[in-house]
Design brief:
0% strand
Length: 110
């Protein structure tokens, strides 16, 4: 599994890419829909901020709470895996929603 720092950088890069695509699409296609594009960019920035903030999870138990160090490490890894899975699922669904909103603003083919 990647480190927290690598995951945070990936989140920031993904959100940056989405925002840059919105800026490009706004300048190319969105003469009359500037407010909607700006709303998507703001929502993307908020998504990034919230996801990175949620990435700072802490395992609240200590080694003393377990029979041995091996059980502690196993429980800690399981906790971290579960948190990253929930975070990933939440991030993915929000990105899909943002993508749907972006696609709805693009002009249809004629």
């Amino acid at each position: 599994m990647a480190s927290k720092r690598q995951i945070k950088k990936a989140i920031q890069n993904a959100c940056g890419d989405i925002a840059s695509e919105c800026i490009f699409a706004e300048s190319a296609f969105g003469e009359n829909k500037i407010d909607e594009w700006d709303s998507i960019i703001i929502d993307t920035a908020l998504l990034q901020q919230e996801t990175v903030k949620r990435m700072n999870m802490r395992f609240d138990k200590k080694v003393k709470d377990f029979a041995n160090r091996k059980e502690y490490n196993k429980a800690r890894r399981a906790f971290t895996r579960q948190c990253v899975k929930e975070l990933s699922d939440s991030f993915r669904s929000e990105v899909e929603n943002i993508t749907k909103r972006m696609n709805a603003l693009l002009p249809s083919k004629k």
